[in-house]
Amino acid sequence: MGITTNSARFIFVSFLATWVLGVEEVNGDSVHCKYPAIFNFGDSNSDTGSISAAFFPRPAPNGVTFFHSPAGRVGDGRLIVDFIAKYFGLPYLSPYLDSFGTKFRHGANFATGGATIRRSNDSLFISGISPFPFDIQTVQYSNLKNRTTMLYTQAKRNSDIRKNFPRPKDFSKSLFIVDIGQNDLAAGFRNMMMTKEKLVAEIPDLMNLFSLGIQFLYQQGARTFWIHNTGPIGCLPSTLFDVRNPVPGFLDGNGCIKSRNDMAKEFNRQLKRKVSELKAQLPFAALTYVDMYAAKYSLISNAKKLGFYENLNICCGSFKDGVRKYCGNNILKNAAFEPIPAPYGEGFFHKPSGRDCDGRLIVDFIAERIGLPYLSAYLNSLGTNYRHGANFATGGSTIRRPNETIYEYGISPFSLDMQIVQFNQFKARTKELYERAAKTPSERSKLPNPDEFSKALYTFDIGQNDLSVGFRKLSSEQLLAALPDIVNQLAKAVQNIYQQGGRSFWIHNTGPIGCLPVNFFYNLNPPPDFVDQYGCVKTQNEMAVEFNKKLKERVIKLRTELPEAAITYVDVYAAKTGMIGNAKAQGFTDPLKVCCGYHVKYDHVWCGTKSLVNGSAVFGSACENPSTAISWDGVHYSQAANQWVANRILNGSLTDPPIPITQACKRH
Ligand SMILES: *[C@@H]1O[C@H](CO)[C@@H](O)[C@H](O)[C@H]1NC(C)=O
Ligand SMILES: *[C@@H]1O[C@H](CO)[C@@H](O)[C@H](O)[C@H]1NC(C)=O
Ligand SMILES: *[C@@H]1O[C@H](CO)[C@@H](O)[C@H](O)[C@H]1NC(C)=O
Ligand SMILES: *[C@@H]1O[C@H](CO)[C@@H](O)[C@H](O)[C@H]1NC(C)=O
Ligand SMILES: *[C@@H]1O[C@H](CO)[C@@H](O)[C@H](O)[C@H]1NC(C)=O
To answer: Which N-terminal residues, if any, form the signal peptide (predicted)?
Structure first.
């Protein structure tokens, strides 16, 4: 369900669960399936905390009836998926995107509020559509399975890994629940250009994508599927809110929007047929189609008789007098995707390591210099350790909240403000988990010590993607005019961490973006004055210099605003241009050449991917000697380049004040 259209559901949750599960009992024969684990896919109907961990925590009074505090769910208590888990005597499912205190021994939940079957171009921040559609959820499952299997075989008996992850042999015996589709319909209703006929015409495509998702899971060993159809979307109070003076026949006898429910029924009719087809296609699968619509509609029709209050009332929030007040508050108004493939990582980790590089990044060299382990990513819920910090950075992140999805140009939904929200949540939950883990040293050893947050170093390296979005969408005057706002939002993030007790900040400026080889992939014959003496795009580097000037001024101002902070401004731009300008003397090859990938004229095969060129398959492989390359894949620097830059910036020769990173906690 859409993040903004789900306030009504909890009214009937507990009733429905007994109903649906009851059906199984009635029909059940003597075989009683004993599932070792449950893997769930879907939207906010069954999200047990992924969106909450990855974006905004769900506010109180969500969770009030059962968990007595917000529990990552939209609803006052448990969801249907929780009742299913309970029915089988299994624990409530941990959300896959929650890397903190979660256990996957008996399954995982990939559902995210606002998820769709089809990848959408709508952004979470604008329309509440999740960046994790069904296909990504199935890839996450596959990723969990592969990595669990690897970790499990490496782990010793009785290790946490074995306690917290499913056994490799359990996957194929598990129950796979899918409840998704409502947001695809909701998005269609929202889209003014989408007539009823057009939306109906799109359903077969949704069915095919749905079917591909199930087949993919089947290929990964899944066998038992429990598939919910979609509910009577026309009965959701939030959609009824916009209805004024309905013409006769617009609403049905229960006050629901008839045409929307008809659409849901059409969706369900085709879904049921698709499930039958899948039964024929997948010989070892047991697929059950579950008529959620009938259960929910029956509940709504008989609400009063069954002791619920009437269907069009909502329990939390209000949709009155032209104002929508969402439950709790309204902030929601407005390892996580596909794994990075080989040959990424080959130069150091000898396998993909989640980094957009052949090896280590500058942040890894920082950890080495300070004598700490490499940081675990906040969004990685498998085998991570946060004792010495966490990494909230995600590829494609901007400072400002993006207006586009990751599926268009790779811009991450985790903009800096989201990363700060994640950090705040991380810090708050650390305290609770740390206390809870007092008697289990092995768990405690993976958590930060709550007393150490104020002594930690907070590093920032962000802004380049704000420029690249700007180059794409704005004139240079518009982008120039936006720089103060962009820089201010970075300053706000620093202020926020300061309020949370952070005192030491290490802030990288942005690099010479015009020198990224990607600039020339699609611009084969740039005019002569387009580039500077090094062959970099002049206007882009000028913009980066302007950004950096504004950033430095803002950092100087921050020092007066935050009297106890030690803030170091780091001139990464100077280090990188120094490297690019002296590439040969420093032992590097042409800085505008790409080490990994195939980019010849109009043919582009990105690093680690495969594609047809002139009718034959080409793999985007790595160059012979990555340690002499500056650019790894056209966008990201190689490990050798990162190391070179780290060596220049970490000893203080390019920082303001000029102190090495090991002394950056001291205010100057
Ligand atoms: C999203 O945008 C891409 C490129 O602009 C387009 O090809 C695709 O059809 C769009 N998807 C949807 C669901 O609108
Ligand atoms: C997991 O491994 C299987 C089998 O090798 C492969 O087909 C699948 O693509 C892998 N999944 C991911 C997410 O890499
Ligand atoms: C997104 O759109 C809003 C409204 O049009 C605008 O104010 C904002 O600056 C845009 N954000 C970005 C990053 O372009
Ligand atoms: C594809 O064809 C072009 C032009 O004939 C040629 O220059 C190029 O090397 C070919 N690429 C591959 C991968 O065969
Ligand atoms: C920092 O290291 C670079 C590269 O090794 C060196 O050129 C520079 O002199 C050093 N600066 C300081 C302040 O130690």
So the answer is: 1-22
- Per-residue burial over 67-104, b = 16 or more CB atoms within 10 Å of its CB, e = otherwise: beebbbbbbbbbbbbbbbbeebebebbbbbbbbbbbeb
Closest ligand 4 atom to residue 598 Cα is 13
Name every protein residue with a CB atom under 6 angstroms from any ligand 5 atom.
Answer: 647-648, 651-653
- Burial class from Cβ neighbours inside 10 Å (0-12, 13-18, 19+) for residue 522 reads exposed
Tell me the HSE value of 258 on the side-chain side, using a 13 A CA sphere.
8
| Nearest CA owner, ligand 4 atom 6 | 614
Backbone angles phi, psi at 348, to 5 degrees: -145, -50
Given a contact cutoff of 8 angstroms between Cβ atoms, the answer to whether 359 and 345 are in contact is: yes
For atom 10 of ligand 4, the residue with the nearest CA is: 614
Using 70 as the pLDDT threshold, list the residues of the chain that sit under it: 1-31, 58-61, 64, 158, 241-242, 311-312, 318-339, 668
Cα torsion 134, 375, 409, 611: sign: negative
Lookup result for tokens 């980019």: 599
Pairing between strand 457-460 and 224-228? unpaired
With tokens 């990173």, the residue in question is 661
Angstrom distances, CA of residue 271 to CA of 1, 144, 182, 595: 17, 27, 12, 46
Ligand 1 atom with minimal separation from the 121 CA: 1
Half-sphere exposure of 143 (CA within 13 A, CB side): 23
74, 85 contact by CB (below 8 A): no
pTM for this predicted structure: 0.78
CA-nearest residue, atom 3 of ligand 1 = 408
Return the residue whose CA atom lies nearest to atom 8 of ligand 3. Answer: 403
Would you list the domain boundaries of the chain? 38-326, 362-583
Q: Which ligand is nearest to the CA of 146?
A: 2
* CA separation for the pair 305, 123 (Å, rounded): 41
CA distance 200 to 256: 19
What pLDDT does 10 receive?
32
Closest ligand to residue 340's CA: 2
How remote is the CA of residue 129 from the centroid of ligand 1, in Å?
A: 14
**What is the number of other CB atoms lying within 10 angstroms of the CB of residue 65?**
15
Angle at 120 (CA atoms; ends 115, 126), nearest 5 degrees = 80
SS3 656: strand
Q: Which atom of ligand 2 is found nearest the CA of 139?
A: 13
CA of 222 to the centre of ligand 2 (A): 13
Residue bearing the CA closest to ligand 5, atom 9 = 653
Query: What is the C-alpha separation between 74 and 60, in angstroms, rounded?
Result: 10
- Give the closest ligand to the alpha carbon of residue 120: 1
**Which ligand gives the minimal distance to the CA of 599?**
4
What are the residues whose beta carbons fall under 8 Å from the beta carbon of 20, sequence distance 6 or more? Answer: 80, 290, 292, 295
Strands 38-42 and 655-656 come out as unpaired
pLDDT at position 107, please? Answer: 94
Is there an atom of ligand 4 within 6 Å of 613 CB? Answer: yes
| Other Cβ atoms within 10 Å of 280 Cβ, number | 7
Is 34 exposed, middle or buried, given 0-12, 13-18 or 19+ CB atoms closer than 10 A? exposed
Under CATH, which number does the domain 38-326 receive? Answer: 3.40.50
Q: Residue 660 CA: which ligand 5 atom is closest?
A: 13
